[in-house]
Amino acid sequence: MYKISTDTKEPVLLKTPSVSDDRGYLIPLTDHIDHDLFHRCYVVGDYGKRVVRGLHYHKKEMKIFTIVSGAAKFIAVKIPEDVANRNNRQEIENYLEENPDVIKTFVLSDRHQGVVAIPAYYANGWVSLEDNTILVCLSSLRFENTKDDDIRIDPYIIGKKHWETIAR
């Protein structure tokens, strides 16, 4: 099975097994993650659905997300470092228009368990699909080291369609 490590260069969704019996269930979230990679774990809760978090671009930090309760749609956007550094709206929009395949989406819920790994050089964000969504994030950097590795990009620069649930 694939293992998330420093060699992970593309966003990836790993399904996690669930073991259940008459008492409930157990989901081993980190069995396929190099434990030396992570230096911080935190919890994020969103009170309502359609809450958008991100986009946050990182040159060093890798993040891994999983859902504890509720559901979320995760977005990963590959942006060249020089374009991200300038953080010019028009330049990013032009880049995305010319390269629409750099936007990846993943959906996780407490009923569809997995972990989403988003490596460095990607902007990442998510939108809650249910009220009271709670997620856990593992980070490759400690909080004090993330301050200089965070470029905030307008989440709607990728278009509202990526944040919405589309009827099918």
Structure report:
The protein is mainly β. It has a single domain (12-18, 32-159), classed as Jelly Rolls, CATH 2.60.120.10. The chain contains 3 helices and 12 strands, in the order E-E-E-E-E-E-E-H-H-E-E-E-E-H-E. It has helices at residues 81-86, 89-98, 143-146, and strands spanning 12-15, 19-21, 24-26, 40-46, 52-58, 63-69, 71-78, 103-109, 114-118, 122-128, 133-139, 151-152. The strands form 3 sheets. Strands 1-9-6-11-4 form a 5-stranded antiparallel beta sheet, with no helix packed on it. Strand 2 and strand 3 form a beta hairpin. The termini are far apart. The mean pLDDT is 94.
Q: Would you summarize the structure shown here?
A:
The model has no long low-confidence stretch (mean pLDDT 94). The longest helix has 10 residues, at 89-98.
Widest β-sheet, arrangement of strands: 1-9-6-11-4
Give the amount of beta strand, in percent: 35-45%
Percent helix range: 10-25%
Structural class: mainly beta
Task: Just name the CATH architecture.
Answer: Sandwich
Query: Can you count the beta strands?
Result: 12
